[in-house]
C-alpha cells in the first residue's frame, strides 16, 4: 500500500495544486487529507473545487469545524471568517459538516487531526515554552489513548515529523500543504515555523508489513498566495507564506 498524506491546506489552492501535481507522478493507492482545509484568506472555494476533482480520504480539522460552527456574531467579528463564508457558499459548508473528526481507515491505519477525541491538542509537540518540542514517548502514548494501529497519522502542528514509538507504532505528521508558519495564543502563545515557503506532504509505503516514510517539500507560486492574503488584510499570513517564519 502506498499513501500520499496531506494536512493543513488552509485555503491555499496554489500549494494544493502543486502537491497534487507532484502526487500524480508517484502512483499512490490513496490520498489522505487530515483536515484544516478551507480556513484562510487565500482561495477557500477554489481549494474546495480542487478537492472535489481529486477524491481523497478526508477528515475534519479544528478550523473546518470552526467555519461551519461560526455564529453570525463570530463571522461579524472576524474579517477572515466573513471572507471565507462569502467565498464558499452553502455547498462546501455542508461537505465539511459531514466529514468525520477521526477515522480508523484499516486495522493498521488511524487518522486524526490532533489527538483521538480532540482536534485542538498537538500529539507530538509540546509548546509550553513558546516553540515546539517533541513530547516524550510516555506523553505520546498517553495521548493516543490505547490506539494500537501500526501507523498513526496526525496533523495540526504544521511540523513534518516521523516518530517511532517503543510499541513499534509509527506516528507521522506530514506537515502543512498551505501554511508553513504561524503564531497562536492557544493553549499558550507559541510559534510554529518551517523556515521555507515550500508546501509539505508525505509519501508512506507499506513493504513487508513495515512503513517507509518520505517527507516531501514542493515549491509553488507562494507569492500569489501571499498577495491575496495581503489584499484581504492578512499581512501576517503573507509573511508566513513567503518566509516560513512566524516573526
Describe the structure.
The protein is an alpha/beta fold and 247 residues long. The protein is 32% helix and 24% strand. It has helices at residues 13-23, 44-53, 62-69, 72-77, 79-88, 90-97, 137-143, 222-231, 235-243, and strands spanning 2-6, 30-33, 57-58, 102-104, 109-112, 125-126, 133-134, 151-153, 161-164, 170-173, 181-184, 190-193, 199-207, 210-218. The strands form 4 sheets. A 5-stranded mixed β-sheet has the order 3-2-1-13-14. Helix 1 (13-23) packs parallel to helix 2 (44-53), helix 3 packs across helix 6 (90-97) and helix 8 runs antiparallel to helix 9 (235-243). The radius of gyration is 17 Å and the shape is globular. The model has no long low-confidence stretch (mean pLDDT 97).
Features:
single chain; 247 residues; alpha/beta; 5-stranded mixed beta sheet; 9 helices; 32% helix
Q: State Rg.
A: 17 Å
Tally of DSSP β-strands: 14
Q: How confident overall, as mean pLDDT?
A: 97
Query: Spans of 5+ residues with little confidence (pLDDT < 50)?
Result: none
Indicate the proportion of strand residues.
15-25%
Distance between the first and last residues' Cα: 40 Å
Q: What class, by secondary structure content? A: alpha/beta
Largest beta sheet, briefly? 5 strands, mixed
Number of helices: 9
Shape: globular
Q: Reading side by side through the largest sheet, how are the strands ordered?
A: 3-2-1-13-14
* Secondary structure: helix percent: 25-40%
- H and E order: EHEHEHHHHEEEEHEEEEEEEHH
Amino acid at each position: 500500500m502506498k499513501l500520499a498524506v496531506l494536512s493543513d491546506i488552509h485555503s491555499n489552492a496554489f500549494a494544493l495544486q502543486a502537491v497534487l501535481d507532484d502526487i500524480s507522478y508517484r502512483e499512490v493507492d490513496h490520498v489522505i487529507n487530515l483536515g484544516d482545509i478551507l480556513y484562510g484568506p487565500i482561495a477557500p472555494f477554489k481549494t474546495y473545487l480542487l478537492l472535489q476533482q481529486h477524491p481523497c480520504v478526508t477528515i475534519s480539522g479544528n478550523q473546518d469545524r470552526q467555519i461551519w460552527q461560526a455564529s453570525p456574531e463570530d463571522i461579524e467579528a472576524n474579517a477572515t471568517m466573513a471572507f471565507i463564508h462569502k467565498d464558499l457558499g452553502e455547498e462546501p459548508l455542508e461537505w465539511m459538516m459531514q466529514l468525520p473528526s477521526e477515522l480508523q481507515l484499516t486495522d493498521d491505519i488511524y487518522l486524526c487531526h490532533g489527538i483521538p477525541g480532540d482536534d485542538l491538542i498537538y500529539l507530538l509537540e509540546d509548546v509550553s515554552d513558546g516553540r515546539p518540542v517533541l513530547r516524550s514517548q510516555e506523553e505520546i502514548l498517553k495521548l493516543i489513548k490505547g490506539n494500537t494501529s501500526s501507523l498513526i497519522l496526525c496533523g495540526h502542528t504544521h511540523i513534518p515529523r516521523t516518530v517511532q514509538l517503543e510499541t513499534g507504532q509509527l506516528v507521522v505528521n506530514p506537515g502543512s500543504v498551505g501554511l508553513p508558519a504561524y503564531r497562536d495564543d492557544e493553549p499558550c502563545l507559541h510559534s510554529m515555523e518551517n523556515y521555507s515557503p515550500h508546501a509539505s506532504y508525505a509519501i508512506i509505503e507499506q513493504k513487508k508489513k513495515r512503513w517507509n516514510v518520505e517527507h516531501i517539500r514542493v515549491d509553488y507560486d507562494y507569492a500569489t498566495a501571499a498577495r491575496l492574503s495581503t489584499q484581504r488584510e492578512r499581512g501576517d499570513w503573507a509573511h508566513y507564506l513567503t518566509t516560513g517564519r512566524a516573526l
